[in-house]
Amino acid sequence: REREREREREREAVKKGIAMDDRVRLSRRIRFLLLAWLRRSRSVGLGHYLTGRIEFVRRFGYKEMTKATEGFRKVIYSNYHGTAYRAKLKGGEVTLVKELKAFDLGRDKFLEEVQLLGRLRHRHLLTLRGFCTGRKRLLVFGNIENGSLKEHLNDPLKTPLNWKSRIKIAIGVAAALEYLLIFSSSDAQIYDVSVNSCNIMLDENFTPKISDIRVNRHTQSHPKTTNDACSEGSCADEECGNVIFQLGVLMLELITGQSSDRQGEDLIEWVQHSCIANSIDKMIDPDLGNSYNSRELQKVLAVARLCIKSRYEPPSFSITHVYRYLQKKIDVAT
Fold first, then answer.
1. What's the first-to-final CA gap in the chain, in angstroms?
2. Are residues 243 and 195 in contact, defined by beta-carbon separation less than 8 angstroms?
3. Which end of the chain is more exposed for a tag (fewer CB within 10 A), N or C?
4. Domains of the chain and any CATH numbers
């Protein structure tokens, strides 16, 4: 009996030891998870845990951004809301770094903006990669290997875009705008967007990416759009700007190879003059040569004209109608 009692005491001691080891391991695991949570909370702010997690967004150092942008000298475009720079990261990836002019936004509001922009996921929107809160409020976006659309329309040293590539750009931008419309209708926060050849970026496969998206902190029922030109400090009256009009001007840019510098007015006047002369050929970008489909081009031009009218009168169609029409009538996969 004494031996049985001793064996029982040994078994109990072993059980206690095992239980103690389990508690130690559990305690270590909890501590590890807590430390990991604290590290993430410092990097993207505690507030985002209350409203949703941001994945794959990192904090960049100010010195790293200064070096990547060559001292913030490589400007891609600049407008009322901020300046976009071309940057090359350590791994060689070419990205877009945007400096926000609203420095008085405050750290918490800025981190909230990072969170809201980080939610957006679409093939034709630049993906937010990270941010910097040093001397400047900086947002770091994804791959822009082939620069802006404007460069490929205006720079004689760049390889001209063929018709198929231009149509893909028009359809891709329309798809992204439809996504923003749907996303905003199901979200309390609304997104401002500006669309022109300056801020449409092209990745290594020439896939178009809208880069100028901002958080609009005024309550609206649809995405607000601005018609910013490519120069610093210029911003059109928001009552005149709308996304359908901007898409129409963009399509004219793709057809003519001309960039608009006065919120579309100069390009529209030029196109109207060509129409009066009954010479569509004068409107078409000479770089296209004879490599375009005439029937497709006329359909795109007709859509562009309808879109432009929306600046002067309420449109009877939506961006979704434009996107679906282009998808259906033009045989180009996106």
1. 83
2. yes
3. N
4. 58-143 (3.30.200.20), 149-329 (1.10.510.10)
